[in-house]
Structures are given as C-alpha cells and as structure tokens.
Amino acid sequence: PVVRRQMGEAYRQFLQTKVTDLALTGHVTFVDKFLSDRELIETLLATDVYLAPQRDPYQATSGTLAYALGMGTAVIATPTAYAQEVLADGRGILVPFANAPRFGQSLLTLAHSPTVLEHLQKQSYAYGRRMIWSNVGREYRLLFQEFV
Fold it and tell me: CB neighbours (10 Å) of residue 136?
C-alpha cells in the first residue's frame, strides 16, 4: 500500500514487464489486495517460492514468512535476524539487502532447478512443523516440567 501511494501503478507495471521479459508469466501471479488469513494460507499453498525482500535489517519477525515455512514454500529472503534463524542450515536462500539481481538469480535458479526447489520446500515444511501450536505447546510443557 505504501509503494502504491508513493508511485501509483508504476512499480507494479515495472514488475509485470520484468516477469514477461524473463518468460515467467506462467510462474507469477499478481494479486491487487490485502489478503485475509484464509486467503494468505490458500495462496501460500499454491505458491512455489516466497520472496521476502525486507528493507529493514532490524525487522524482528515476519508473520508471512512463518506462514510460508508452515506451508512448505521455498523462501528467498534478505538476512533479517529472523530470516537468518529460520532459513539457516539450507532451509532457504538469503540474499544481501537491496540486491535485486541476486534475488532474480536465486529465483531463476529455482525456476529452472526443480530438484533444488523441491529440496527447499521439504526443508521449509519440516522446519515449519516445529512452529505449529501442538509442537510449540509440547515444548513449553517440557520446559515447564524442567522448572517444576
């Protein structure tokens, strides 16, 4: 919404042109609205790669990144503290801040390497299972038992 207020549709048009130029139209869908939680989950279930190009290196967390991991979506992100933690050990791809070419290279790698894409999706899903409430609750119960 902020970009749209500042730039109008110029940025979206730029991105749509890039997608066409890179022959990725069958892989990218633009959605022009804020998604409800249900719509977000449905979209992530249909998404192969989630991009998280944050500008703020101090961003503490990302709800949509957590959802993406839970859905088993491959992730390409900038190295915020949260992204570094959840994408460590090969669970995703980290690219430097403000480096669009590296994002593009990483995305093209996944678009043209189904084996690498599937590996990241499996790593993401396995890690995401650790964050579902039943598993988080079990970890808290074990922690509380240690102190009792």
Answer: 11
The larger pLDDT score, comparing residue 89 to residue 34, is at: 89
Is pTM beyond 0.85? Reply is no
Query: What are the backbone dihedrals phi and psi of residue 69, each rounded to the nearest 5 degrees, phi first?
Result: -60, -45
DSSP labels, 91-146: TSEE--TT-HHHHHHHHHHHHH-HHHHHHHHHHHHHHHHTTSHHHHHHHHHHHHHH
- The radius of gyration computed from the CA coordinates of the chain, to the nearest angstrom, equals 17
- b/e burial code for range 66-99 (CB count within 10 A of at least 16 → b): ebbbbbbbbbbbbebebbeebbeeebbbbbeeee
